[in-house]
Amino acid sequence: MAKVLRILTQLMGWSCVAIGLFHVALGNTAIPGAGSAGATVDSWGRFMGASFAGYGLAWLWAARQRPIPARVVRWLAGVFLLGGVGRLLSLAVYGWPQWFQIALAVIELGLPPVFFWLADAEERALRGSGASVLTS
pLDDT for 1-45, tens place per residue? Predict the structure, then answer.
């Protein structure tokens, strides 16, 4: 389980960095259905892309720790889950978005429980092996 946590944490980090930089570079073009949303939405999207890239860097920082800190994984997964809840609120207020946004919502609502479950896998593995556990 510890290896799965490490792989998923790295994958999450690199994915978020890549997606964030994609949004910084392309602005509205990166959002399906938002190509003509205008300068305000473009500016907001590029800013949020930079923020998402930073969020990905936090995942990568966590993945480089030994052991991966469970508390950090839970917080980062909670933020991701909050994004999925935001999509549900949007669905309730405005209706169904473009299909790709629905797929993203499924990931944002489904992946955090996996991280919550795996969060302390590496810490537990190190405790079980008798190695010292350093937490930050």
Answer: 989 999 999 999 999 999 999 999 998 888 887 767 888 988 999
Nearest by Cα to 18 from 74, 59, 66, 77:
59
The residues, any chain, with a CB within 8 Å of residue 57's CB and separated by 6 or more, are 13, 17
Q: Which residues contact 122 (CB under 8 A, 6 or more apart)?
A: 2, 5, 6, 66, 67, 68, 70
Residue 77 tokens read as 């997964």
pTM of the model: 0.87
How far apart CA 80 and CA 32 sit, in angstroms, is 20
The 3 state secondary structure assigned to 10-33 is: HHHHHHHHHHHHHHHHHHHHHCCC
Task: Say how far apart CA 25 and CA 39 lie, in whole Å.
Answer: 14
Angstrom distance (rounded) from CA 9 to CA 63: 6
Which H or E element spans position 35? none
